[in-house]
Amino acid sequence: MNILVVDDSALALLDFKRKIGQVNRSMHIIYCETVDQAIATLNEQSIDLAFVDLQMPEKNGADLIVYMESRDDLKKIPIIIITATGEDSLLKTSLENKVSQYIHKPVLVEDLVKIIDRHAQ
User: Fold this and answer.
1) CB-based contact 100:80 (threshold 8 Å)
2) 101 - beta bridge partners?
């Protein structure tokens, strides 16, 4: 399973790496700190699941989701939003029908296990 993780925060990525390392599954994880890096990765590799932070400078997670939705070969990839924003965020509400799930930072190992198991093929 190829998993894309997009977050501009080095601290959040480090935390995610540490926690996903505790998930005992066969996975290849690609970490990107910008939307442009994520788009390049999506154009070069097959991705089975994407974890995307919403709030990033310049292009944000919503920009990446809109890009993925515009491509037939990418819009079937399940997207999990990782966010620190509140439940009533307008941006989150506008993306509801485009994403599979939201999880809040800090990400819990138990949540990662459930999500990965649900999307493993």
Assistant:
1) yes
2) 80
Radius of gyration of the chain (CA): 13
**Cβ 40 vs Cβ 6: under 8 Å:** no
Contact at 8 Å (CB) between 92 and 81? yes
The model's pLDDT over 89-117, given as tens digits with 9 standing for 90+, comes to 545 555 666 778 888 888 899 999 999 99
Q: Determine if the pTM surpasses 0.85.
A: yes
CA angle 94/83/117 to nearest 5° reads 100
Q: Decide: helix, strand or coil at residue 88.
A: coil
Structure token pair of residue 13 = 């990525």
Nearest 5°: the CA angle 99, 52, 30 is 125
Identify the CATH number of the domain in which residue 75 sits. 3.40.50.2300
Give the pLDDT confidence of 30-42 residue by residue, as tens digits: 999 999 999 999 9
Domain count, the chain: 1
Place of tokens 């442009």: 36
